[in-house]
Amino acid sequence: MSLQADLHQDRRRAGSFGDDAEQYDRARPPYPAEMIDTLLAEQPRLVLDVGCGTGIASRLFIHRGCQVLGVEPDARMAAVARRRGATVEEGAFEQWEDGGRRFDLLVAGQAWHWVDPHAGARKAAAVLRPGGRIGLFWNQAFPGEEARLAMAPVYERLAPVLGERSVLIGQRDGQLYESIAAAAAALDTNLFDQIAVEFYEHERVYTTAEWLELATTHSDHRTLPPADLARLLDTLREELDRIGGRVPVRYETTLVTGRTRSS
After folding, report:
1. What does pTM read for this prediction?
2. Residue 79: how many CB atoms within 10 A of its CB?
3. Which of 255, 233, 243, 231 has its CA nearest to residue 205?
4. I want to staple 245 with a disulfide (CB 3.0 to 4.6 A). Which of 80, 146, 208, 238 is the partner?
């Protein structure tokens, strides 16, 4: 079973982001302008942001002149999004009452794997106008070689499961994207066509402190026992400072996109 098929059921991890929503908003990277250009090529006006979190993606579309509505299950995350200028309704997308509203574009940044893939796809098709577009996207971090080699033995010793699976340190789960794009998962409704997977890149250099702050916004890190997490972070800090306190990261943003059928 793929990650996409069952991760949405892990409500402990899904609910961990709001424990420090301000930190999440501060530490998480944005999305590349080229991808936003792609999603706005037909000049959509009404945008629905599913699992909008603190509004990181919403703000990118608002700044381009779109009218954006966010749907977010965590009230703590929604509160930050509102403070940053987003309009948000609270609730899980699968049960959200759309009130007959229809949208030109539905997006989900770093969030669709927390949505039931089948119920979510049916709901997405229902709230998009005919020919409307869906855009599901994720940032995948690939730390530079020196930082990666410094961190690898720390994870191997203190958190081997994270070392093998965490997307934060480049352990890509290709099944997540493949299952969404393929007939077995989120677009398996016969309601979408022109399904495509596209990739965009952007880069950032983190200080040690910035990198560790980012790490603790990832649910697989955040839900470690507190003592284990503290030990992991302290040891990572020592190793990263030893190599100069810089973590260059290449981000690959994966976009899964499609359109509702016109008839």
Report:
1. 0.88
2. 17
3. 243
4. 208
